[in-house]
Recover the amino acids of this structure.
């Protein structure tokens, strides 16, 4: 294999550094996006839990009303 010239070696070094920087930035962006999605999912889950609790409370109240003797 022929030895590389100094300028070719420098270009390869710069290219490698550029690729490393790009990869680092891409990973950071992906991490931030995943964290944002996780936060959105956590919010949705909390909202769903509140809705489920409200439905359960409503069902309990309806059941209590149905069990009360009716005054005819």
């Amino acid at each position: 294999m022929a030895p590389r010239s100094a300028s070719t070696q420098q270009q390869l070094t710069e290219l490698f550094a550029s690729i490393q920087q790009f990869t680092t930035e891409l990973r950071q962006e992906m991490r931030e996006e995943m964290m944002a999605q996780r936060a959105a999912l956590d919010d949705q889950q909390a909202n769903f839990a509140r809705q489920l609790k409200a439905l359960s409370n409503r069902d309990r109240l309806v059941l209590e009303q149905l069990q009360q003797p009716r005054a005819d």
User: Anything to note?
Assistant: Residues 38-67 form one domain.
